């Protein structure tokens, strides 16, 4: 589900909850909303408000951590690709084919995007990324080192290519984690209850209604950011592919 859609649904839910509170307020007897009753309502909803604030803070922290980790993974992957290319360049012209395959792998990654669905599945025109990196490794294994220096470089190149492959499979395995939807659903229910009590206690004037709508929009915006950052390679708030762009400019150079 798209992050904008999630945020929009949360805003709609909170707005409806506020409207329900206003409707119920108009139909309740006056003694149900006297000072003592409002004090009890405030005390009861304070507990839910505290829980909601804690849950929202945990979700924001978790989404931010996911985003930061993805950003580090992107930079690490680009650095490993550059390191692999330089090690192969030091080995000699025998690795030219493997270096070209590596460059094609990064070009494909940039054109397809950095998600498990686009990198792992073969298409009609291109192999899956794991097959590309395995082809590079196969070329490295087929090399016949002439001296100790080349044997060391071959071993180093195979080790780094293994780390590049590991990065790919980590992406595939973690690609479907996303948001804890059950946790998010409970949080939205708590927030809807809070906004319903706001409507229950609020006087029906334009200023109050405007403030409640702005508050609902702010909370929906927070949910949107959580949803978007929980999927850091797609959406409006996504990890930049600048490290890969920089890497591909350096690949294949002497």
Polypeptide structure, described:
The model has no long low-confidence stretch (mean pLDDT 83). This protein is mainly α and 254 residues long. The radius of gyration is 27 Å and the shape is rod-shaped. The longest helix is centred in the N-terminal third of the chain and has 57 residues. Helix 2 packs antiparallel against helix 6 and helix 3 packs antiparallel against helix 5.
List the helices and strands and how they pair.
Layout: H1 3-27, H2 35-91, H3 96-112, H4 116-120, H5 129-141, H6 148-174, H7 181-201, H8 206-229, H9 242-250
Helix pairs in contact: 1-7, 1-8, 2-3, 2-6, 2-7, 2-8, 2-9, 3-5, 3-9, 5-6
Given helix and strand content, the structural type is: mainly alpha
Helix percentage: over 70%
Q: Quick one: how many beta strands?
A: 0
Task: Please tell me the overall pLDDT.
Answer: 83
Report on the biggest sheet. Answer: none
Topology as a string of helices (H) and strands (E): HHHHHHHHH
Strand content: under 5%
What would you report as the Rg, rounded to the nearest angstrom?
27 Å
Shape: rod-shaped
